[in-house]
Amino acid sequence: MQPEDSPAELAAIGLRIRHRDSDVWMEQPCAALKRLCCTVYEQRPVRCRKFQCQQLTRLAAGEIDEGDALVRIADTRRLADRVRHLLAQSGYREDGAPLQEQFDRLTSTRIDPELEPELAEIRQHLEAAMRELKLSLARNFLPPPGTGSVA
Ligand code: SF4
């Protein structure tokens, strides 16, 4: 949350606002995201208004066209789907938590490849898929470090 945000108003439109000491944040995945759209767009938090992903920045700068951006978005969504699929194959029960959190929870337990070779192989694929997803997010969506694109 930014100082200009009203946590009470954001909670009233359905966002899951959490507090700890003086920190206030919005639980992710966002409760307002439905079918890839923001359902509270006009009332969205300040940080959401200020965020510009690299695809939008490059599009505005004329470096790519909309088709390029849509392909990159679709590719990255496929990578996220692969991570979800491999989490499920690993026996992780989808609990609505952010993918990184699900991945961290699952991989906090080790697998003995001698005892469970198939599961160990799935784990390897999962770790590779997660690396690829994070690389794509960093390269194509998150603002480059130090650019100050997000307030
Ligand atoms: S723009 Fe903000 S409020 Fe809207 S869905 Fe995304 S994270 Fe949620």
Please tell me about this protein's structure.
The chain starts with 6 loop residues before the first helix and ends in an 11-residue tail after the last helix. A hairpin with a 2-residue loop joins strand 1 and strand 2 (23-26). The chain folds into two domains: 7-51, no CATH class; 55-140, no CATH class. With 151 residues, the protein is mainly α. The model has no long low-confidence stretch (mean pLDDT 93). It has a two-stranded antiparallel sheet with strand order 1-2. It has a two-stranded antiparallel ribbon with strand order 3-4. The chain is built from six helices and four strands, in the order H-E-E-E-E-H-H-H-H-H. It is 50% helix and 8% strand. The structure holds iron/sulfur cluster.
Q: Low-confidence spans: pLDDT under 50, at least 5 residues? A: none
Average pLDDT: 93
**Helical segment count:** 6
Task: Outline the biggest β-sheet.
Answer: 2 strands, antiparallel
Oligomer: single chain
Rg: 18 Å
Q: Write the element-wise H/E pattern from the N-terminal end onward.
A: HEEEEHHHHH
Bound small molecules, by name, code or SMILES, are: iron/sulfur cluster
Helix content: 40-55%
What is the CA-CA span between the terminal residues? 10 Å
Spatial strand arrangement across the major sheet: 1-2
Give the tally of structural domains.
2
Strand-residue proportion: 5-15%
Q: Please state the overall shape, judged from the principal axes of the Cα atoms.
A: globular
Q: Got a strand count? A: 4
Please state the structural category: mainly alpha
